Please model this.
Amino acid sequence: MDLANFLIQLLNGVQYGLLLFMLAAGLTLIFGIMGVVNLAHGSFYMLGAYLAWWLVGAIDSLLLAIVLGAVLAFALGWLLEWALFRHFYHRDHLDQVLLTFGLIYLFEESRSLLWGDDVHAVPVPPLLDGSIALTDTLAYPVYRLFMMGLCVLLALGLYALIARTRLGMKIRAGAFNRDMAEALGVNIRLVHGVVFAVGVALAVVAGMIAAPISSVYPNMGAPVLIMCFVVVVIGGIGSVRGAFVAALMVGLVDTFGKVLVPQIASMLIYMLMAAVLLYRPEGLFKQ
Model:
């Protein structure tokens, strides 16, 4: 592998890892702070992809569609937390699994009724429909660089929210000791609503920005959900920093594995997870 090909695969691995982080960050926040096992998280990714296809067809602007989709996703997350999830915080994890498993079927059937079962393509915006030449024969798409930049901005925004704001302090307090935080006057219901809505919005936005390069098709959230759980386990449950590091590791291992050792590429990620858990059962970072 020459330097240009190595650079392309490195960029692909980082881009895939950053996209995984957007998904896994929401999942680890919901599970680590609220204690909810959310198997429907992949369905939000699928919903984002279909929203991108539908909104771009209606308003002919992917960037505006992403903004509208994020607002709609935040509202949906808040509604779901208020109507369903807040009633399951003190229930057994099996009850939460059954609830979210049922939501998967609900979202899939709703998607089928609203948008059908066909495969769709989302066009890349003309402004980003170009490539940067690396050599005389190799180039890298501008849209993938845009994806990376947007993911980095959202990651920095999430870090600022949790580490630098008063709301973030309440989120950390609720994650560390919910009863004590509530006794000190923290509105835990409000905190949980915001956390769940942010997690849903991140997953939906990830689906929207991935739609132009992965197409839009039924059940596209299932494989992504598995990868998200791998990232959460490797990084440490409840740790956003761990999710970021683990997502980049998984993205690079998966990308270079498919290029260098395609025969066992599908196993490498799980071998990485097993190796991490062997030496650090709690994951790379604690909450």
User: Anything to note?
Assistant: Residues 73 and 84 are 16 Å apart (CA to CA). Residues 11-220 form one domain. Strands lie at 131-133, 139-141.
